[in-house]
Amino acid sequence: MKFSLIMATLGRVEQPEVFLSSLQRQTWRDFEVVLVDQNPDARLAPLAERYSRCFPLIHLGSRPGLSRARNAALPYASGDIIGFPDDDCWYPPDLLERLHRLMESRPEIQGVSGRALADGGRPRGRWARRPALIGKYNIFGRCISFAIFLKRRLAERVGPFDETLGLGASTPWLGAEDYDYLLRAALLGPVLYQPDISVYHGDLTSTFSSVDRQKRYGNALGFGRFLAKHRYLFPFVAYYSARYLIDAGISLALGNVAKARYRWAALIGNFEGWLGRSAMQNNH
Q1: What is the pLDDT of residues 53-106, one digit of tens each?
Q2: Cα–Cα dist 114/134, whole Å
Q3: Residues with Cβ < 8 Å from 155, sequence gap 6 or more?
Q4: SS3 of 164, please?
Q5: Backbone φ and ψ of 188, nearest 5°
Q6: Model confidence pTM above 0.90
Q7: Which end of the chain is more exposed for a tag (fewer CB within 10 A), N or C?
């Protein structure tokens, strides 16, 4: 079983090297890396050349945009399983071997979604504790792009990432490309959420500054767009978004105005992304 690992990167050198060095320690050795370089210069050329002596590595160029970069790489992926690591994540040494064993023992499963761990092995974010097949209403707490692994046959049926979603998109919808991709996959074949499949990623720290707030808003707009695209109705959107309203209220009561504004930006972004899509549908 061969893995194709598609990693898009922009503006970084040290972090991609951490990921590539983690592959050196993998106990399962049948894999390739498709490195999608979105830099305007050759800063990654020495890194790509060095690691291409250690394992198969294809070095491609692409215009900026996370979904666009992954789509550019998909035709070059030759493995049986395709994954989408971030350029600032890293794999535990037995990750690919564990995936191999899981998919060999469960041949009906067409994909696996894992969870994110921060430094020290703590869960990064809120994650479901039990395995489950991914569906429309339980994908939440079971999805992050760098822990998605699909069998090639399913990936071919799913098709490309939605390039209007995700970091670097030429739209306001700067998130949720992973939710969209995973749900589309799960609607075509069984995809298992397995919390024992974990990928490390540094903590996302926030000072709740105006820059952080704007990033969170763009990500929430993308999430709202995802909710509209897959026809989630208002009661569910309201239920899912209520936690942001509660968090904003608690933060304000505790005097943390910056955090309250940050949570409010997430709430407004979710609804604006959802309503914007609904408005376009109502105009047709």
Answers
A1: 999 999 999 999 999 999 999 999 999 999 999 999 999 999 999 999 999 999
A2: 11
A3: 74, 77, 82, 185
A4: coil
A5: -105, -25
A6: yes
A7: C
